[in-house]
Amino acid sequence: MTDGGKETRQERPEGYTMPTVVRARSFYLYDRRGVRYTDFFQNYGRCILGQRPEQIQRSIKATVSRGLISEYPSLFSGRLEKLLTMLFPDFPVIRVYSDQQKVLQVVQRISNDAIFDPAISPEHASRTVSYWRPFLGFGGADSVMLLPILPFPGSFVPQVVCLKEEACTAWLPPSDCVSPLLLDLLIKTTAFLIRTLKAEDTVAKRMNNPLQGVFETRGPYGLTGLCAQRYEEFALEALALKVMLPPSADVPFIVPAEYSAGDVQAFLQLSRRYAGAVTY
User: Fold this and answer.
1) What is the 8-class DSSP label of residue 240?
2) Regarding beta strands 129-132 and 145-148, do their DSSP bridges make them parallel or antiparallel, or are they unpaired?
3) Which of residues 75 and 46 earns the better pLDDT score?
4) For labelling, which of 10, 29, 46, 75 has a CA lying 20 to 30 Å from the CA of 255?
5) What gap in Å lies between CA 79 and CA 213, rounded to an integer?
6) What is the DSSP string of 24-45?
7) DSSP state, residue 44
8) pLDDT band at residue 5, thresholds of 50, 70 and 90?
9) Per-residue 3-state assignment (H helix, E strand, C coil) for 98-137
10) What count of other Cβ atoms lies within 10 Å of the Cβ of residue 67?
11) How far apart are alpha carbons 60 and 233 in whole angstroms?
12) Is there a contact between 149 and 44 (Cβ–Cβ < 8 Å)?
């Protein structure tokens, strides 16, 4: 990130607490100089299974070779719904949207309250509409609508909406026609996630958060509780230690599934120092 003690905009664009990334593998990111950073951001949770989920590259090649890119109806919609009903058996109504405005409109029809996030929301918060995060679950029995944060790197991921009651289908517009390529990739990553969640040793490892007792944590997720200015200072110091944090304090950090003690030892010491300034 530095050259003779001076920052370069090539390594860290102005206004960002992240480096310019040219390569990513597992839970590591690499800048132009080959410097490796441990990823505690994981693209808002979309990379919780790593930057290159299993079979992604193979699926891209196979699906593109068949010309299945344009937004036409496809067999992949039914395959995705089948997987999602396995993952969320209490939410049989499935819709998939590429238009985020549709999702917001549907949410507003169900509840005017903020969406419950199991990683960061207060325990007493309304749970009518809940995010679902791997390794944590969702709001519980009170939830009517579920918005899963699935492992699909990139903001272009289709948004899945799951409803508990068949009678509520009138609240939901039909699914969008989503590119079969995106649906196929989402199927592959969701299937990989289901296998991961069945592996008890893997789940136990993700729940072992080294920042527990330092910051407020829930499973592999956590919040620093720092104000915006202090968080930016913390994120930049962490970056100098080759650890990349989320862009702002309100986004939960996520402990990687793979890292060495040497990757995070100095970062953990830094975290303890900043934790003394936390005011929840």
Assistant:
1) H
2) parallel
3) 46
4) 10
5) 42
6) EETTEEE-TT--EEEESSTGGG
7) G
8) very low
9) CCHHHHHHHHHHHCCCCCECCCCCCCCCCCCEEEEECCCE
10) 9
11) 39
12) yes
